[in-house]
Amino acid sequence: IPQGSPISPLLANIYMRRFVLGWRKLGLGKRLGSRLITYADDLVILCEKGNAEAALDHMRGLMEKLKLTVNEDKTRICKVPDETFDFLGYT
Known about the structure:
Layout: H1 8-25, H2 28-32, E1 34-39, E2 42-47, H3 52-65
Antiparallel strand pairs: 1-2
C-alpha cells in the first residue's frame, strides 16, 4: 500500500498495535523503565538512563518478527535534555 493512500493509516495502526501488544507481553515497559509513544507508523521509546541500547535491540527484534522494516535513517538514541528530536512535527 503506498504511503498517503486512504488505507495506509489503518494498516499502520493494525501493525503498530501488534508491536505494542508484543512489547507489553514481554514486560519490556517495566523491565526497561520505558514508555511507548506511537502514532500510525511513528514511534518513540522513552526509557530510563542506561536502557536505550536494550530498548532499541528489543524494538528491532520485535519489528523483525512482525516482518516490518525499521527506517535506520530515522532511528537513533537521543539523550534528553542534552539533545532534541522531532516527532510528528514537534521538537
